[in-house]
Amino acid sequence: MMNKKSLLLGLSTFALLACYSPEPFEAESLDDDSKKQTSSEMGTIYSINGSEQICNPSISQDTVKFPASMLWLNFSKIKVNSHDDGFSVTDVKQHDRLTISDTANNVKWYLMIDKDKGECQFQDPEWSTHPNFVVALRGVGIEGNGTCGDVLDYGIFAARTSDKKKFWFYDKGIIEQATPHVWVDPAAKVEEDADESTVEGFFGTKNVRLTYADGSDGDPQNIVFIDYANGGKSKAIKLKKPADRSNWKIESPMISPDGNFVVYNVMTKSEDTWEAYIQELSKDAEAVKIPRTKDMKSDPAQPHWFESDGRLFVVWTEFTQATYYNKIHLDNSAAQDGSAGRTVMREVRLKAGATGNQLVEWVDDNVELAPVPMIGGRSPDGKFLSTGYKYAYLLKLP
Question: CA distances (Å), 123 to each of 143, 199, 230, 348, in order?
Answer without folding.
Answer: 19, 22, 28, 31
